[in-house]
Each structure stands twice: as structure tokens, then as C-alpha cells.
Design a protein that fits this description.
Blueprint lengths: L2 E2 L6 E9 L10 H10 L4 E4 L17 E11 L12 E8 L42 H13 L2 E5 L9 H4 L7 E6 H5 L7 H9 L5 E5 L19 E6 L4 H10 L2 E4 L4 E7 L2 E9 L1 E6 L5 E3 L7 E7 L6 E7 L5 E3 L3 E2 L5
The structure holds zinc ion (2 copies).
One zinc ion (ZN) binds next to loops.
């Protein structure tokens, strides 16, 4: 019997889950961000300004959904702005419910970026609670993750290489739903932005998390400019409809894949084999928690659009990577074998 790993029902919706606007340090207004992304075929944008959770439900329409979020930062030495040579940890929080109004934490040092101060009145947080302690420690980051999860947020660990973090830091972070396997703003500025190795590091530590490709756009340069940081990394979310709850439920369940170009049309498991159908690819590869990866190529150097891999029953998880002729990648999440029962 076929077991669909990406649901058979529903439609794919293209989403950017990490965006800045001129409310903080981005250059475009929330409306201009919407216009840019709609023009490029996106249906969903999560607005994740630094420390400023402002719902933009007024921007949602039949073809567009604005998700409510914010990005938090922990800087080494608790210095804002961060010292250029120091490490930091950034997390994006996206509300699972459109009714979420309260920002669970607030950093008075970071909430003065750009035009943030003009919008302080729009941010909802409980002023009776003390400001969250943001020491750059595992304990502090993990407490923030817990707090935001408990408050109903989808938590993503952002751009580890831009943050200068390594295994010593990210191996100790607990409870993130996802990590950025690709960050387009980092790519544009020349950082190592595609980091599948870090995704595997986290998976092999037993962390069941999803890969996200996102823009982290600030739009210092216009659409079409080589330094434009929009429309480079996205997720394709399979959901029954374009509405807040169904989209976030799909994200929460892992019914999506991350990409910088190629599309994955179908993914299912049947009789011990994993089948994938995709846009024309130069290679489709199948990786696990163990050596003995597999890869499929087209005949005579031609692209291929489907591949089948035999699953090692002793593996703990597997995931699939599609590479197209431009060197762009699509990444499924890791599927754990105990999910296949
Ligand atoms: Zn960041
Ligand atoms: Zn950001």
C-alpha cells in the first residue's frame, strides 16, 4: 500500500518564512513585500521583523496569506548591536493561530531597530512580566524556545553560519521545530548559506526537525538586482486550502519541503521503496543516518523526473535531495522509519 510522505490531497503553496520590513531593518513596507512576493508566485509570507510581532492580517486575501511572527536574537556578551567577530543565535517564531496577539518575549535593546519605535504601540506583550533574560547560553536559548512553543509558536533556528555558530552551540539547542538549511540573505552576502551538513548533524543527535529554505530578505537592492535577497529560498507547503490554520497545521506536521529551485511533485513509500517525482533534475539523492547513500542520474546526461530508492530497514531516517542543472537544491525533511508503520 502506498504511504504518501507528502500528502496526496491538497495543493502546494509557495512560502517565504523569514521576512523583514521597514518596521525594523528592511527597506520595503509590509504591502510592498506582499506585492513583490505575489508577483513571483508566492502565496504565503511570514512577517518576522526583529522583536516586533505585528499581525498583518489586513494583507491576507484569496491568493495571499500573511503569517504572524518575529525574530529573536541572543548575542554573545549580551551586546546590541552584536560585535562583528562574536557569535549569536537567531530564532524565528511564527504563530500557529491567527488569533495569537501577545508576543511572548520582548527585547528592549533590539526593538529600537529602524522604525520599530514608531510601532511600539502595535506590539502586544504583557508589560507586567519581566523582560526575558537573553544571555547567550544554551539555558537561555532553550528557555526561549520552550516559552515560545508553549505559547503556540513554530520555532525555526536561523542561519547558523551567518551567526558564526558551530556544533558546540547548535548541538545544545533543544526543541526547535525547524532549521534553515538555506538562508538567501546569507547567500547573497557570500556566507555559506546552504548547510545540509548541519541538518544531518542535528538529525543524528536525535533531533526531529524540519529543513526550511528562507529569504531573510531586507530588500536593500531592487527586485532583479544580483544583491536582491528576495525569492531565493522557499518552502512548498501542501495544505487543503490557503488559510491560516490549515497552512500552519501542515507546517507543524512537516507536510512541506525546502527548495532553492527544483520542485517535488510526489513522494511516497511502497513495498520497501521510496518514490519521488520532481521537476527536471540532474541528480536525485537518498541519504540516511548511515553511510551507503544512493543517487540517481538520467540516461546519457539527460535530466530525470522520477527516482526510486530501496530503503535500508536498519536506517533510522532518510531524506531526499534534488539538484537541478543550475545547482539549485530541493530538500525533503527527514522521515523516520517509525513514521512509516
Ligand atoms: Zn537573523
Ligand atoms: Zn532575519
Amino acid at each position: 500500500m502506498k504511504k504518501y510522505l507528502l500528502p496526496q490531497e491538497g495543493s502546494f503553496y509557495k512560502a517565504n518564512l523569514h521576512t523583514h520590513t521597514n518596521i525594523t531593518d528592511g527597506d520595503l513596507s509590509p504591502e510592498e513585500v506582499k506585492a513583490l512576493y505575489k508577483a513571483h508566485g508566492y502565496s504565503v509570507v511570514a512577517y518576522t521583523d526583529h522583536d516586533m510581532m505585528i499581525p498583518h492580517h489586513d494583507l491576507s486575501d484569496d491568493d495571499f496569506l500573511a503569517l504572524t511572527g518575529f525574530e529573536v536574537a541572543f548575542n554573545e556578551g549580551n551586546l546590541y548591536p552584536a560585535k562583528m567577530e562574536s557569535k549569536c543565535c537567531h530564532l524565528c517564531m511564527i504563530a500557529l493561530s491567527p488569533d495569537t496577539k501577545e508576543q511572548p518575549c520582548w527585547n528592549p535593546k533590539y526593538a529600537y531597530l529602524g522604525h520599530a519605535k514608531e510601532h511600539h504601540g502595535e506590539v502586544c506583550f504583557d508589560k507586567s512580566k519581566p523582560f526575558f533574560d537573553r544571555d547567550y547560553t544554551h539555558e537561555s536559548v532553550n528557555e526561549m524556545i520552550r516559552k515560545c512553543r508553549d505559547a503556540g509558536f513554530f520555532v525555526t533556528y536561523n542561519h547558523p553560519t551567518w551567526s558564526f555558530e558551530d556544533f558546540r552551540q547548535y548541538s545544545g539547542y533543544e526543541g526547535m521545530h525547524a532549521m534553515e538549511i538555506y538562508n538567501h540573505d546569507a547567500e547573497v552576502y557570500g556566507y555559506p548559506a546552504y548547510v545540509p551538513q548541519i541538518y544531518d548533524d542535528l538529525l543524528r543527535l536525535g533531533k526531529r526537525i524540519y529543513p526550511v529554505a528562507a529569504d531573510d530578505n531586507h530588500n536593500r537592492f531592487p527586485d532583479g538586482h544580483p544583491k536582491c535577497d528576495s525569492c531565493g529560498g522557499f518552502v512548498m507547503i501542501k495544505a487543503r486550502e490557503l488559510a491560516y490554520r490549515p497552512i500552519m497545521d501542515s507546517l507543524f506536521r512537516g507536510d512541506f519541503y525546502a527548495s532553492t529551485g527544483p520542485l517535488i511533485h510526489e513522494l511516497y513509500f511502497e513495498n520497501g521503496q521510496v518514490h519521488v517525482k520532481c521537476s527536471p533534475a540532474m541528480r536525485v539523492s537518498f541519504s540516511m543516518d548511515r553511510r551507503r547513500f544512493l543517487s540517481a542520474y538520467g540516461e546519457n546526461g539527460e535530466p530525470l523526473t522520477e527516482a526510486t530508492f530501496a530503503l535500508d530497514p536498519d536506517a533510522i531516517y532518510f531524506r531526499i535531495t534534488v539538484r537541478d542543472e543550475h545547482g539549485h537544491y530541493a530538500n525533503t525533511r527527514a522521515y523516520f522509519l517509525d513514521e512509516l508503520n
